[in-house]
Every structure is written in structure tokens, then in C-alpha cells.
Amino acid sequence: MTPFKLAHAGTDDWQAAADDCLQQLGEIPPDTNLAFLYITDHFADSYTRLQQYLQKATGVPHWVGTIGQGICCTATEYYDQPAMAVMLCDFPPHSFYLFSDPDAIKTTNDSTLQFAVVHGDPRNGQITHQLVQLTEQLGNGYLTGGLTSSGGYYYQLADGMHEGRISGVVFNEQVRVTTGLTQGCTPTGPIHTLTEAEGRYAIRIDQRPALDVLKEDIGEILAHDLQRIGGYIFAGFPVTGSDTGDYLVRNLMGVDPDHGVVAIGEYLQANQPIMFCRRDRKTAVDDLQRMLRSVQKRLPGPARGGLYFSCLGRGQHMFGDVSREMRLIAEQLGDIPLIGFYANGEIAGQRLYGYTGVLTLFS
């Protein structure tokens, strides 16, 4: 099985970028049947023309992708500049189909559907429910993907441009995939129980004022200077049923010292598990490398290519140098064709994460 074809370019003119990519791609194998196309939002108003230009030049019938404030590919990241990346794939005939309406999946007669790559509009207030619904429609299948990140356009590509919903591509069991998720955080204390909550406010944890528990977990130095915890300390919510210790990370929005209340960027429910965690560069590097080792061990054969969806808060903001996150992946996995974008939220399983990196490899 040959590797997928990958090309990327960063230049001001979309047609020049497309021509550069076409030159990199070279001769297109006749059985190529699916393309992933990610662009930065600088090219957003030309997305349709860009995709149609590439489709006509390559003859690839099906296209899927979205827009990112940053995009990524093998060992390379593009931020704050016009850029595009395209990966051409050949999958077995009838092993996938694209969707722009998740309800349409109900009508399929294929009982072997098991996996989907999903892009979503961050303005869609129903997206969490739709992800759960899609997973159920796939017979408890698995999802990976991310939410469009853009300064003004929120297009998703799935054999046409779409907004306001989720869209993507569904695969059946003929396509072998291996996935991994990296958190970039580490717990600062044990898992607690949120015993009283209202809306986004954690009032009591373990029957104690929530702020007292937070201070205890983060240590005396930070507890005496809570101004320092922004962007460093987060709330974590363990994923029920996970055998890998996954948890959802949410921002701390503020504290009320007079009443011992902690505001969190999530609607809260009493009796749910909660913990606090920290995020720093070393933790992010260590967990990324752990995830990559795990994926390598589980690969059923050589990877032909893959997708990587990372949080806007990761990349250069977390790892320092531009492209360091993608170089770390290449150092571990080798020169595998890899493509993706920096998202407004990352999708893994049936859940919407934050501050994570989600990897999918096709074998």
C-alpha cells in the first residue's frame, strides 16, 4: 500500500498556491478518490474556487475539509498567512461517503459504518448533541475532527460548501484507522465530587467551598496569588467509561473569594466528578510523546497518511517555536503524510474537547 500524496504551500495568491501544490503532487494515480483540503482563513473567500480548480486539475471526485486560523502538515505549521494543504487518498471503492446532514446517515443500508471525520461550525449551539447523535447512528462508532477556526468565514467542505452544522466523511470497516488523543495537562490533585453547582458556578466540592478545594490542590504559592492561575490552571472533568483516563478540560472564568465560588467555562451539574489540572510546555511535550508511542504500538501496519487536529491554544503558543508540535510528531512517526488544522474545539469519540491534539492514522 503506497503512502497518500501530500502537498502544501504558503503564498498570497490562491491560484499560485494551488499550482505549487499540483506540481508537488505530480502524477495523480487513477484510483485516487478522496482529498482532504485545509486552508487558512486568508483564502476563505476563495475556498470554492480553490477547491474547484484543484478538483478539475486532479480529477479527484470527493473533497472534504475546512478553514483554520492555522493549518498543519508533516513537520510544518502555517499561522497568520495565506496557506493551503491538500492530501490525496485512495480508499477501497464504496468504503466511504461524505455527508453534510447528519440525519441523512439514518437512511444508509451499510451496517459496517464505524468511523467519521467531522468538521463543525463553532456557532452551532447543538453541536454537542449532534456529535452524540452521529455516534449513535454509526452504531457507537468513533469520531475525530474539529471546529472551524476563522476570523469571519465558517465553511466546511463536503462535496460542496456548508455552514451552521456538522459535516464530513464516514468510513466503513474496510478502512483501518488508529487514533490517539493528547491532553497537554496534568492533574494537580485527586478527583473530587462537585456537590453543589448552579449554571457555570461551582459552589461546593466534596461538601466544601469550591474555592477552598481549588486552593488546596494548586498549592500555597498559587493560592496566595490567584491572578497567576489564568491560562495555567484549568478544571478537568473525567470522561465516564474511559479506560485511558481521558478528561475534558475547561477554562476557569473567575473566583468569588467572599463566597468561595469558582466560575468555570462549562454548564455544571451536581454530583459530577471534577478535578483541577495545570497546563505547561513540558507536560504538553511529554503527553504528546506518550500518545505517539501508544499509537505506534497499536498500528496494524504501516501508516499511509493521517490527520491531526490541534487546539488553537497549542501549536506555537504551547510548544514555543513555529512547527515544533508537528516536528515532534514527525520525529516519532517519521515522514508520514499528515494534514490538519488548529481548531476551535477538537472532536474525539462523541465529545468536544479543548486544548487537545487528536491524531488519526490510516493503514
Low-confidence segments, given as residue ranges, are: none
Which range does the strand content fall in? 35-45%
- The residue fraction in helices comes out at 10-25%
Strand order of the largest sheet: 1-6-2-3-10-11
Number of domains: 2
Rough shape?
Answer: elongated
The main sheet comes to:
6 strands, mixed
In total, how many beta strands?
Answer: 26
Summing up helix and strand content along with how strands pair, one would put the structural category as alpha+beta
Gyration radius from CA atoms, angstroms: 21 Å
- Total helices: the number is 8
**Between the first and last Cα atoms, what is the distance in angstroms?**
8 Å
Task: Look at the structure and give the mean pLDDT.
Answer: 92
Can you give a write-up of this model?
- The chain has helices spanning 14-25, 47-58, 127-137, 210-218, 220-223, 281-298, 315-319, 324-333, and strands at residues 5-9, 34-40, 62-68, 70-73, 76-79, 84-89, 96-99, 113-120, 142-147, 156-158, 161-162, 166-172, 177-182, 185-187, 192-198, 201-205, 208-209, 233-238, 247-256, 261-264, 272-279, 305-311, 338-343, 346-349, 351-353, 357-362.
- The longest helix is centred in the C-terminal third of the chain and has 18 residues, at 281-298.
- With 363 residues, the protein is of the alpha+beta class.
- It is 22% helix and 39% strand.
- The N and C termini lie close together (8 Å).
